Amino acid sequence: MVNITGIYNQGNNPLAKEVLYSYNEIGNSEKSSGSLVNKIPEFEYYHSFTTKFYFGAYSNGAFCRGTLNTNMSDGALLRTLENNFKFFQTKGGDVGYKNVTVEEVDNGKTVYTYSSAFDYPADNSIAGPPFVKPKDYDYKRGLLYKSEVYSNTGQKLSETNNTYSFEENEEYLGVRFVPPSDIYNGKSGDYPTTFAAYKSLLNIGGCMKCDDSYFIQKSFLGGLPLDINTSNFLIVPVFETYGWVKLNTKQDKNFFYESGQQKMIEKNEFFEYNPLNKKISQKTSVSNGEELKTKYFYHSGNSGYTQNRISEIERIENYKNGKLIDTKKIVYDNHWGANAAYLPKEVQSSFGAGSLETDITYDKYDDKSNILQYTTKGGITTTIIWGYNKSYPIAKLENVGLRYIFEPPPELELLINQAIAASDVEGAAMPNVDESTFLLALDNLRASPYLQDAYITTYTYDPVIGIRSIKHPSGIMEFYLYDSANRLKEIRQDGINGKILKEFKYNYKN
Asked: CB-based burial of residue 222 (10 Å sphere; 0-12 exposed, 13-18 middle, 19+ buried)?
């Protein structure tokens, strides 16, 4: 068991929370549930060979003559500084644990069970040279099988069980070559040390001197790996494995106790998937005899309309006990002036088998696909003005139409352009720069008589940190302050020294 440092209140006293983590097998506190994917690392191996030499007695220089010895064997112990096996991990970790228990002292515990290398090890069938990368199945490891929540008295409060299926794929990457055991491995000092020298030796024919008394014919050198006439090398294929994990079912059990008797509410979810984009196509939930089903419909991506964006949802249907309850549909279009992207034009909905009605209409986008105006079912229009080089919205104007924003009177157009230009300048500056010029430009926009019926919200930012201020239609302004680590520290009203609305503290224990 690993005892993680407790979480303390400010001042390190008293102890606020203590969390214990255990990685042992469930029911066996003496054995870890962790495992490596690979075999034990190997830094040495013995390489042997048996070949045929010509022996020239008494160093008589018999070159490719003399007695042919058919039982000459030798070998060498080869050591390396690195593990010869390809090292695999479980979801980025050297060790993958099947069981993890997280216990908050005096507040119960949660027990997790995952798939691990015990269930899906790498294929280590090839254990020797040339040490090719084995087939690995990391996409199957680290999946949550079960989670169980217990109270501090040991009562089970909830349990979740997941089941999965896989679509497995293999990609052929090529081959590695290894000489068979009857091929001379080059122990002699006269053995060529470069491919060019080796190839030259094969071409000149004859024998190669091994020492003062032994010679070897070139036919026992192995030839060239891809030469069909000297196909002595063994070919070892190399594959890459990958796959698609599908959550098939999810079972949730919630337990409660009445008069000491355990009772349970169970919910079962079933998932089906779109084979083209690998997203959920149908989700079914069954609980207390009631079935809720949601169907998701996507564009096929096979037309110019969808531009191969196969993950875009076109329609969602909800059913209860087999009866259609409601439908939502997104209508896409690409008639946005200079922007030819296919973007949502309408969001429609219907109840039961009724006709679809438009809930929201997206009226216009800019060349960056930022929404400029949308209109609700009730006819209320909202216009967005984008600044910081079209990266962030700087003003939201509700109850104002395109007639003032996209064909504005010259006076209003000037105010909009001044606010946008001021935001661009601030966005290029260092964080915490004085933004008084930008705030004044936003206030001038708010005060325009052309927008007197609009509800206006304005925003400023430090682009690399976060939002800096929000001014609401009521005129109340919130300022967002950050600490030296760029974490939100305070939200204040009407200025950086104004009333604190919210405060955030970050405490750590070494």
From this structure: buried
Q: For residues 202 and 217, give the distance between their C-alpha atoms in angstroms, rounded to a whole number.
A: 10
State residue 406's pLDDT score: 64
Strand partners, 397: 383, 456
Q: How confident is the model at residue 68 (pLDDT cuts 50, 70, 90)?
A: low
Q: How far apart are CA 72 and CA 386, in angstroms?
A: 82
Please give the Cα distance from 499 to 483 (Å, whole number).
Answer: 18
Peptide bond before residue 121 is cis, with ω within 30 degrees of 0: no
pLDDT tens digits, one per residue of 378-397: 889 999 999 999 999 999 99
CB of 42 closer than 8 Å to CB of 84:
yes
Across-strand partners of 47? Answer: 76
Q: How far apart (Å, rounded) are the C-alpha atoms in residues 445 and 431?
A: 24
Tell me which H or E stretch contains 174: strand 156-178
Residue 499 has, within 13 A of its CA and on its CB side, a CA count of 5
Question: Which of 475, 465, 466 minimizes the C-alpha distance to 442?
Answer: 475
Residue 232 near residue 183, CB atoms below 8 Å:
yes
Count of H helices and E strands in the chain?
4, 32
If one counts every other C-beta atom within 10 angstroms of the C-beta of residue 413, the result is 15
